[in-house]
């Protein structure tokens, strides 16, 4: 996964805090030789990291050339900036394999709800899983730098996650299968006013599938941005849209 300033700083601060629970953000900023306000704004996504500050941090943390380049070149994005194609954090298939269970993404979204407690029991109760499953997923998100404690509150670091690939793997198929299973569970157990599972059957040119996929991606991003900007987040939802062939030429040959 290509790191960004929030993930790099968040992971370092989390690691130090785990070694010393009394370790503060002010002490972290002091160790970097930077203002507490600057570090706080960068970690909260409200301010991009300047090139000068990035160079100082890179030297203080003895970062690898790859992370140094990422720190200098990338800009952080604020939580209220909206979600467009350029606002997503791309991860490779190897990283996705580590977090290919739906629970990881549900936890990241739960952290956007004010009342959420980053505790296994709380997460387990809200997602309908056991506490061990919740703890394993939480620990993994922290370890790879996708979640960090910032200003006393656990938050998702960086941008929303996106996997951009044209390859079907066991991990991607498992993830999509889980989402379909969650949809089936909702179909059986949630009232109609809490869900929408509908479809349309049409005839079209198979060559238009790439066009359809791109339009669906645009729709998902636009609707997601609208829904997140309206009201007050209270629950986590999955927005799943599919298009797939029902008929196939020569199926019975």
Short summary:
With 253 residues, this protein is mainly alpha-helical.
Separation, N- and C-terminal Cα atoms: 44 Å
Under the CATH scheme, the architecture of the domain at 5-73 is: Orthogonal Bundle
The pLDDT mean sits at 82
Low-confidence stretches: 74-85
**What is the structural class?**
mainly alpha
* Arrangement of strands in the largest sheet: 1-4
Helix content: 40-55%
The major pleated sheet works out as: 2 strands, parallel
Radius of gyration: 21 Å
The count of strands amounts to: 4
Element-by-element helix/strand order: HHHHHEHHHHEEEHH
The CATH H-level homologous superfamily of the domain at 5-73: lambda repressor-like DNA-binding domains
What is the fold-level CATH name, i.e. the topology of the domain at 5-73?
A: 434 Repressor (Amino-terminal Domain)
Outline: globular
Question: What is the CATH C level class of the domain at 5-73, in words?
Answer: Mainly Alpha
The number of helices is 11
Bin the strand percentage: under 5%
Question: How does this structure look, described?
Answer:
By secondary structure, this protein is mainly alpha-helical. It has a domain of 69 residues: 434 Repressor (Amino-terminal Domain) (Orthogonal Bundle), CATH 1.10.260. It contains 11 helices and 4 strands; from the N terminus they run αααααβααααβββαα. The strands form 2 sheets. The protein has a two-stranded parallel ribbon. The longest helix is centred in the C-terminal third of the chain and has 21 residues. The radius of gyration is 21 Å and the shape is globular. The termini are far apart.
